[in-house]
């Protein structure tokens, strides 16, 4: 089900978002005008995500999940805004940037989190997904991990690769 439609605005290739349904979780009502996007590829119809105010989302950028972009914020390029993220004010998010509620897991030995796009930090070690797959067992053995803990962290790395960007 579509939650918004797009209407043309003069002097721009961007189009205004107009709510087709109420989205109570974020205070949007049917027929409310939101921010501007280039196409439906920039704002998901799923979840409670929304673009409002004078915010602009364009290029290959995508807002999804329960993320909000508002104020004078600009999101563009290949940027992703998702989870419960909020981008607002005069913020610029662009290129390969991603904005989200970070994935965090407390493992049996160390915590894991996204330290930057495409990377995982385990304890004090921050490496790309590929580096963890290649070097992870060696790093784990150097730190005294058991076979079971190595298997545990291997599964965490798979999860991060799948959903943690």
Written account of the structure:
This protein folds into two domains: about 5-100; about 105-165, no CATH class. The strands form four sheets. A six-stranded mixed β-sheet has the order 1-2-3-5-8-11, with no helix packed on it. Strands 13-14-15-16 form a four-stranded antiparallel β-sheet. Helix 1 (about 130-140) packs antiparallel against helix 2 (about 145-165). The chain has helices spanning about 130-140, 145-165; strands spanning about 5-10, 15-20, 35, 50, 55, 60-65, 70, 75, 80, 85, 90-95, 100, 105, 110-115, 120, 125-130. The chain has two helices and 16 strands. It starts with a strand and ends with a helix. It is elongated and about 60 Å long. By secondary structure, it is of the alpha/beta class. The mean pLDDT is about 90.
The overall number of domains is 2
Oligomer: single chain
Say how many strands there are. 16
Strand content: 25-35%
Low-confidence regions: none
Helical residue percent band: 10-25%
Structural class: alpha/beta
Give the strand line-up of the largest sheet: 1-2-3-5-8-11
**What is the straight-line distance between the termini?**
27 Å
Question: What labels describe this entry?
Answer:
16 strands; about 160 residues; six-stranded mixed beta sheet; 2 helices; alpha/beta; about 20% helix; four-stranded antiparallel beta sheet; elongated; 2 domains
